[in-house]
Specification:
9 helices; about 25% helix; alpha+beta; about 325 residues; single chain
């Protein structure tokens, strides 16, 4: 388990690097849906370390790209749907979607479209739920729950770790801290900006320690989406292009690899639905304020000039225009 000093050093290094650049898959109730708590309510959780001792942090970062489609081909009952796919920058590889999208930020007419396809970050933690305002939530047999944390809450967690007054890791079994998730609203959106760490340290209870002994801690990386292979990367790029073009989702063509939630795999296929689409991290009842457009990039290349006559044309024309310019570069 990494020390608090090591975590602080790693966070500082990551932030410096950013500044220098300019900028389980089954519904087993293991994920605690804190987004479902009522406005004004508070859930108290106790975070635990990652079982992977090579992970400096007690969380892992998940990067997902959402591909919206105008329905599903051959199904008139589905008007709009979304397919979630992993962004392979999460694994240190080049992402074919973001390679297309990055240059769009240099043109004001494309920024809104770019934000739609930019990667969305979330963070996977584990721990106990100590105060649960959700009356219909049932604690599973293994009470070590997973938490899918938005960038807004994660910023509070991370910034607090850099506070010199925090003397011990908040995941320490004896001197750790509870974290209070507080839900309010701002501008019609769910807001968690008042969430905070408890002021007083507390030890894990005998029951909690017994649960760790009985079940063990999770390896958090096991809950990241499967890294796409070459065939899956080709499918992701095809789906992205079709999505931008305004086409419906073609289940016969792509459903063996990725598909919207609730859509069955095409007949004759055995491929399982990837975890990016099946992770039971349901969205909040209300969107979280200020977390949709997640750190868009800053580029130094000249902006792509899009004539006014194309501002409302099919997105395939935009793609073709951008690619033509890139080929000349």
């Amino acid at each position: 388990m990494a020390s608090l000093a090591e975590i602080r050093a790693r966070i500082a290094a990551q932030e410096n690097k950013t500044q220098n650049k300019g900028s389980s898959t089954q519904s087993d109730n293991a994920i605690y849906p804190h987004w479902n708590i009522d406005e004004g309510a508070q859930a108290t959780i106790r975070l635990l370390p990652d079982a992977d001792t090579n992970n400096t942090f007690f969380w892992v970062e998940r990067q997902i790209i959402k591909l919206p489609f105008n329905g599903v081909k051959g199904d008139p009952n589905i008007k709009q749907t979304v397919v979630q796919v992993p962004c392979v920058e999460m694994y240190g590889d080049a992402c074919p979607v973001l390679a297309e999208v990055r240059p769009w930020y240099k043109d004001d007419t494309l920024k809104e479209l770019a934000n739609k396809y930019w990667k969305k970050r979330s963070y996977i933690f584990q721990g106990f739920v100590r105060t649960n305002p959700l009356g219909d939530d049932k604690t599973p047999a293994n009470p070590i729950r997973r938490f899918i944390i938005s960038p807004q809450i994660f910023t509070i967690i991370k910034s607090s770790l850099m506070d010199p007054e925090m003397e011990e890791l908040p995941t320490d079994f004896l001197r750790g801290l509870d974290f209070n998730i507080k839900k309010t609203s701002k501008g019609g959106y769910a807001d968690y900006s008042t969430s905070n760490w408890a002021r007083k340290e507390s030890a894990l209870t005998e029951v909690e320690q017994a649960a760790i002994e009985a079940h063990g801690l999770h390896n958090l990386a096991d809950f990241l989406p499967k890294k796409p292979n070459e065939a899956e990367l080709r499918v992701i790029k095809e789906m992205f292009e079709a999505s931008v073009d305004g086409q419906p989702f073609d289940n016969e063509r792509w459903g063996a690899y990725y598909r919207p939630y609730g859509v069955e795999a095409p007949s004759g296929t055995t491929a399982a639905k990837p975890s990016a689409s099946t992770e039971t991290s349901a969205p909040a009842k209300s969107p979280v304020a200020g977390t949709e457009d997640d750190t868009p990039p800053f580029e130094t290349a000249d902006p792509v000039v899009v004539p006014q006559t194309t501002s409302s044309d099919k997105a395939q024309d935009i793609l073709a225009m951008i690619r033509a310019r890139q080929n000349k570069a």
